[in-house]
Amino acid sequence: MKHPWVVLCTLSLLVPARRSAALGLHPTPSSPYDLAVSGNVAGVPAGGIGYLRWSDLRALPTSQIKLDGEFVKGTQTVTIVFLSDLWKALPVAPGSDTLLATCASDGYAAIYTLDFMARYRPFVVLEINGQGPDKWPPPGLAYNPGPYVISVSADLAPAAAGFRDMPHKKPWGVTQVEVARSADRLSALYSGKWASLSPDAEKGREIWINSCASCHKDPEGKFGGTKSGKPFQVLAAYAAYDRAYFERYVHNPQAVVPTAKMEPHPWYTDAELRQLEAFVTAGGP
Fold first, then answer.
1. Exposed, middle or buried, 32 (CB in 10 Å: 0-12/13-18/19+)?
2. Stated pTM of the model
């Protein structure tokens, strides 16, 4: 997870949204505040990238909400566009069902399926207290969360309060989104040794998708974050041959390796750790 805070959000104001308009992608970037778009979108060749200006995103249906403690202490007003509205405005190819967000600064990643967008209503932050990313960081914040932040509020989507790994759906420093088919980009998690899993391992796969994939690539290196620098095979080896070490590390990495970059995950139960182990080892020893 990238957010070092617990978000306490209070929805106070929802400004009526403007009517949605289709977005055209630019072939080249114009500033550090452009959002790169790749994947299954019209006008972008395979492996290519198109770009959205901040002004393009600001022209989409937007809302203003008041959040408490999201970026700095106290209440702040943020201007947002829902990820689902961004999806609707993009020239998305048929069959696409997932948006993948990545952060160039540290290799962090997050996965948003259409079902997740519909249920939890993630949004892109365009302004903080009326200021766009060219004026960030806002006073009182020691780091710059730009150019884009994706976040979720339990006040907008009450179901978010019960989602286990929501911190991993709140990346800052987002520079690129990819329109994808999950069956293609996440195929390594469902093929080979991972094609037929036990019920526990299947639950562990969900933990991987919603949490571990933010910093680790999948078994074939198709998709996942690169922040950790540890390949899937290393994690699988720990889980298979030193389970106690694996569990201690997930719960509190710095207690095991003081220089570890991974954030602690103390909320995982013993059962959930076993599920994660069952997945990464694909039922092995």
1. exposed
2. 0.91
